[in-house]
């Protein structure tokens, strides 16, 4: 039986096809709804990861200025070139030599840097370059190479301010000096904004400002750049003339404790500190310690007065030697009977040792400690040393005697400056500070004002024609101070090298400045503190008094020293007929003992 074929029905086929399309459409709609509604966050995150970026907004570090608002450290805008290694490695081979040449770095270095970070999306190619140079690199349109704005620290005064300011690293974070001490204050907070990049890395849309950039806060220092420059110039000149190894100088405002100048030699350029030795970066005025030598004798005299010694006492120093236990304390000359003033004027070790012998070790230690020795000045400078002052229980008669004239303890130049400023401030100690004071501080009274004033008055004799620091005197001003010339201690004992010091205050009628000058290892015969360090004090203080408009307090002496102009013939007298002043001073006013003063 033959079957009859089923008639073709196009409508059914169309219905089946339409049903299939409807199912497919339903699946697509369901998938879209699942992606865009149910798992929207996941896919939005995936999309953002490919095209949306959060771009940091660089901000500048706070400016550092001196007490008069002059810039000492500023941040300048620069550009840094970076790359996405994944994109850059896909560029044609001939791209790498062109990029290396544009960046100014060897091709091997560039290739190695990229290869080491092949799996990353970011690597710096060159940082902190001129914006025009960075744009020239980006203009090459090499895939994966971009630039970003950053800031670099610049120090207008170079090595003059180097040891005070320190420097920052490539990320603009403080590494040394006040840049480190006040890093949190100076550092700004970078901003952030969301942007959309295309597949080539170009910004096509700025979506949103996430966080606004906040610049760092400015910092006003107590430093006066004019006095700082004077101190730097004079210290450097003194080191050259004396062929010395190193030196430091500190200038304090006596009333406030503000540090007006602090310099060290040798110095370095903080704008290119990478090329200098780390040895040069140290601020020796606060980190290095020395035995102060005879500059400590003013504190010994003050301790004696506080212990009840009559200010008019006469001390017999003949024959210039004193037996203490199994040692002999010696002076360079036999000064005979001396008053306290003459003791300081001639710097008698024997006189200081006799004063110390008549007071307890506890009392001498207490006075030295009150004047800041053996403890930090709390200036806030990173790495500040406290010095060394051993407790009195370990002192024997010899140790107490040597401490009385500056051996057996170690101090920093800043500690010496603080002690002399305290004496000149009527016995009131102010904490040294690098920040300009916003309000008057009271300080701490560490000694009877009457005693402190008596000692300061005695120190004027040191700068008199009979004293050891004639070269520290300033015409028209009353100057007080103390020289020191000590042997430098090394492993195994005291060597042949010296430390030349001078600590002084001016003007004595109403003391304004205290200054300490320390010069290490001067060569030749002129290594005395009165010949090497005192002239630095004179030159710097003479300029500072003028710059700060401090009126003279010894006008009569200024008129008395005023000389009429010499005839031209006299001014060109043969050099052979002129007696060198340096030899005349050395002979008429011998300086401190140049040996520790103790003999077996």
Q: Which range best describes the helical content: under 10%, 10-25%, 25-40%, 40-55%, 55-70% or over 70%? A: 25-40%
Structural class assignment: alpha+beta
**Distance N to C terminus:** 148 Å
What's the total count of β strands? Answer: 20
CATH architecture of the largest domain: 3-Layer(aba) Sandwich
Arithmetic mean pLDDT: 85
Key terms for this structure?
600 residues, alpha+beta, Penicillin-binding protein 2a (Domain 2), Beta-lactamase, 2 domains, five-stranded mixed β-sheet, five-stranded antiparallel β-sheet, 23 helices, 20 strands, 35% helix
Question: How would you describe the overall organization of this protein?
Answer:
The chain is of the alpha+beta class. It folds into 2 domains: 54-218, Penicillin-binding protein 2a (Domain 2) (Alpha-Beta Complex), CATH 3.90.1310.10; 225-266 and 283-562 and 587-599, DD-peptidase/beta-lactamase superfamily (Beta-lactamase, 3-Layer(aba) Sandwich), CATH 3.40.710.10. It is 35% helix and 21% strand. It is built from 23 helices and 20 strands. Strands 2, 3, 4, 5 and 8 form a 5-stranded mixed β-sheet that branches. β9 and β10 form a beta hairpin. α10 runs antiparallel to α20 (534-547), α12 (297-306) crosses α15 and α14 packs across α16.
């Amino acid at each position: 039986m033959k079957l009859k074929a089923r008639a073709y029905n196009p409508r059914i086929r169309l219905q089946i096809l339409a049903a299939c399309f409807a199912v497919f459409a339903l699946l697509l709609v369901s998938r879209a709804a699942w992606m865009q509604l149910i798992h929207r966050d996941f896919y939005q995150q995936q999309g953002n990861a490919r095209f949306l970026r959060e771009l940091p907004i660089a901000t500048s570090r706070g400016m550092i200025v001196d007490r008069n608002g002059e810039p000492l450290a500023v941040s300048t805008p620069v550009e840094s070139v970076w790359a996405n290694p994944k994109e850059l490695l896909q560029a044609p081979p001939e791209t790498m030599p062109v990029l290396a040449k544009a960046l100014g770095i060897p091709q091997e270095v560039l290739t190695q840097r990229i290869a080491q970070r092949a799996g990353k999306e970011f690597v710096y190619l060159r940082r902190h370059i001129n914006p025009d140079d960075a744009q020239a690199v980006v203009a090459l349109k090499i895939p994966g190479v971009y630039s970003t704005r950053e800031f670099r620290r610049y120090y207008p005064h170079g090595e003059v301010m180097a040891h005070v300011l320190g420097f920052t690293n490539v990320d603009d974070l403080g590494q040394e000096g006040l840049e480190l001490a006040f890093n949190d204050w100076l550092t700004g907070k970078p901003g952030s904004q969301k942007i959309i990049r295309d597949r080539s890395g170009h910004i096509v849309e700025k979506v949103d400002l996430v966080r606004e950039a906040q610049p760092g806060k400015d910092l006003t220092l107590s430093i006066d750049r004019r006095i700082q420059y004077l101190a730097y110039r004079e210290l450097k000149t003194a080191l050259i003339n004396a062929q010395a190894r190193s030196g430091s100088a500190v200038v304090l405002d006596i009333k406030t404790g503000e540090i007006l100048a602090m310099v060290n030699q040798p110095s370095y350029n903080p704008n290119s500190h990478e090329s200098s030795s780390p040895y040069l970066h140290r601020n020796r005025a606060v980190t290095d310690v020395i035995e102060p030598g005879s500059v400590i004798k003013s504190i010994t005299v003050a301790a004696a007065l506080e212990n009840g010694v009559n200010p008019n006492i006469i001390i017999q120093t003949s024959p210039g030697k004193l037996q203490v236990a199994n040692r002999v304390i010696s002076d360079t000359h036999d000064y005979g009977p001396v008053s306290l003033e003459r003791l300081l004027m001639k710097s008698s070790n024997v006189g200081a040792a006799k004063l110390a012998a008549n007071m307890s070790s506890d009392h001498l230690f207490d006075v030295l400690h009150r004047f800041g020795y053996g403890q930090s000045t709390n200036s806030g400078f990173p790495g500040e040393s406290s010095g060394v002052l051993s407790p009195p229980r370990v002192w024997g008669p010899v140790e107490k005697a040597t401490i009385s004239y500056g051996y057996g303890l170690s101090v920093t130049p800043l500690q010496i400056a603080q002690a002399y400023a305290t004496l000149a401030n009527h016995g009131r100690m102010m904490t040294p500070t690098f920040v300009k004071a916003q309000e008057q501080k009271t300080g701490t009274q560490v000694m009877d004002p009457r005693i402190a004033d008596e000692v300061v008055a005695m120190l004027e004799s040191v700068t008199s024609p009979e004293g050891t620091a004639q070269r520290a005197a300033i015409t028209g001003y009353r100057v007080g101070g103390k020289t020191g010339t000590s042997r430098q201690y090394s492993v195994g004992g005291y060597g042949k090298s010296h430390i030349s010091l001078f600590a002084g205050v001016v003007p004595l009628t109403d003391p304004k400045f205290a200054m300490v000058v320390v010069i290490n290892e001067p060569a030749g015969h002129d290594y005395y503190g009165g010949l090497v360090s005192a002239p630095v004090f004179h030159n710097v203080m003479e300029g500072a008094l003028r710059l700060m408009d401090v009126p003279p307090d010894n006008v009569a002496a200024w008129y008395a020293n005023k000389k009429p102009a010499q005839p031209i013939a006299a001014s060109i007298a043969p050099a052979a007929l002129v007696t060198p002043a340096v030899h005349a001073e050395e002979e008429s006013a011998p300086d401190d003992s140049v040996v520790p003063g103790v003999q077996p």
